[in-house]
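User: Reviewer 2 asked us to show a designed sequence for the structure in our supplementary figure. I'm pasting the structure tokens here. Could you produce the per-position amino acids so we can include them in the response letter?
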């Protein structure tokens, strides 16, 4: 017997062929997708402990946010409309030094998880400091997450002695490997300009030894590229390649200022990219050559970045922006078709964060991470092409239900794993006392 059967649905599977099933059904048992099929109207439904009539709504894989900084939800709107270096050095780094601690990181993470879960995000890939102090809070929300402990060659929250940065990250990964089914530990180096070559290679080697994902901001701004060319005689991507940091377990975040040779290096190495168009736009970092990445066969996930530089964790808006930005930048309305963008937010995002074997599509044998989208609304009417509407029409509050690992986390737009108003009240109280 199935645990859950969702029927009478438009199932957007995001399998290899991007199969869409009208009058489709998804059956779940013991946290795994067991059936994805069309059910004939004249046959009885398969037996299940819980049967849900989707009423023609869309059922699809949960969204995957390939780059976040969860505790930075506390800094939403703190320092807007500034260049990246001014934003970081004059506002964000000082705010983190004064106000980020074991209690505040958990609070910010809970707020971020609430926003993402209610918006249909079932997995995120995060990088921040004091990760050991908010990992449990994330697990308790029911969100699936890749959680990276930050590494930087400056005193940081939880690591006042920078010489211990890699050791702290390694200890976090060792502690959390296999500890929670929904949490995968990772190592996150902030960037090539805040981490020395020694730090970068040591962090990558630790990730290799432990079988963990290695994350890094890279080639985000023109100034970064110019600095690398002046200091090392090569681009930021070439610098990482020279250090041996590029492989299939490396996630390159932003990758805006890259050239054809860089793209070839990334493709050859098997490394993946987290594309964050709204953050890149807001900080005026530039436009990443996303169509060129995809043409080269590079797996690219879609990320919101943190709330301090976006300012939300809405992947639907990010999907819409990713499609339109590259159309106007290339002066080509056929650039970044809707189906490609849906793949980035699901299947390709799963591959980018190292979970492609488990999630990202609705196929038998994968973990049951899925969402139900309410299409019975004026802005969804009429519905010709589901993929097109998912990119150009869908909103976060269209998400009715969210299931992660076979467990309902959101039902009828209500989050079941935490008291959201209480978390919001606590965050507002923290802001006032700050």
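Assistant: Here is a per-position design you can include in the supplement:
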């Amino acid at each position: 017997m199935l645990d859950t059967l969702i029927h009478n649905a438009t199932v957007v599977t995001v399998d290899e062929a991007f199969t869409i099933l009208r009058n489709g059904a998804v059956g779940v048992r013991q946290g795994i997708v067991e059936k994805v099929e069309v059910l004939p109207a004249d046959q009885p439904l398969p037996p299940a402990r819980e049967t849900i009539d989707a009423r023609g709504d869309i059922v699809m894989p949960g969204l995957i946010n390939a780059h976040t900084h969860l505790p930075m939800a506390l800094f939403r709107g703190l320092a807007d409309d500034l260049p990246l270096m001014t934003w970081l050095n004059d506002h964000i780094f000082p705010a983190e030094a004064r106000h980020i601690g074991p209690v505040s990181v958990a609070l910010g993470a809970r707020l971020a998880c609430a926003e993402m879960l209610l918006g249909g995000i079932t997995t995120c890939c995060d990088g921040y400091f004091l990760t050991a102090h908010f990992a449990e809070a994330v697990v308790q929300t029911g969100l699936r997450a890749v959680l990276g402990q930050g590494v930087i060659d400056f005193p940081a929250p939880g690591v006042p002695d920078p010489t211990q940065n890699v050791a702290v990250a390694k200890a976090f990964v060792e502690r959390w490997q296999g500890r929670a089914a929904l949490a995968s530990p990772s190592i996150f180096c902030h960037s090539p300009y805040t981490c020395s070559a020694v730090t970068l290679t040591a962090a990558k080697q630790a990730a290799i030894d432990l079988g963990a994902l290695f994350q890094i901001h890279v080639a985000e701004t023109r100034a970064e590229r110019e600095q690398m060319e002046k200091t090392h005689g090569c681009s930021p991507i070439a610098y990482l390649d020279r250090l041996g940091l590029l492989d299939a377990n490396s996630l390159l975040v932003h990758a805006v200022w890259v050239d054809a040779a860089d793209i070839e290096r990334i493709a050859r190495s098997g490394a993946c990219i987290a594309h964050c168009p709204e953050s890149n736009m807001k900080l005026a970092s530039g436009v990443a050559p996303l169509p060129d990445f995809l043409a080269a066969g590079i797996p690219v996930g879609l990320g919101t970045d943190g709330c301090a530089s976006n300012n939300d964790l809405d992947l639907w808006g990010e999907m819409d922006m990713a499609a339109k930005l590259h159309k106007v930048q290339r002066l080509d309305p056929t650039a970044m078709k809707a189906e490609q963008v849906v793949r980035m937010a699901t299947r390709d995002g799963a591959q980018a964060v190292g979970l492609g074997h488990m999630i990202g599509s609705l196929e038998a044998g994968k973990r049951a991470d899925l969402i139900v989208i309410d299409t019975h609304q004026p802005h969804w009417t009429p519905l010709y092409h589901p993929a097109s509407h998912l990119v150009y029409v869908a909103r976060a509050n269209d998400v009715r239900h969210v299931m992660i690992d076979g467990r309902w986390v959101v039902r009828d737009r209500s989050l079941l794993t935490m008291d959201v108003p209480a978390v919001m009240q606590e965050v507002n109280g923290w802001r006032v006392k700050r």
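For the response letter, you might also mention the following. The chain has two domains: 2-61+368-415, 63-352. The chain has a mean pLDDT of 96.
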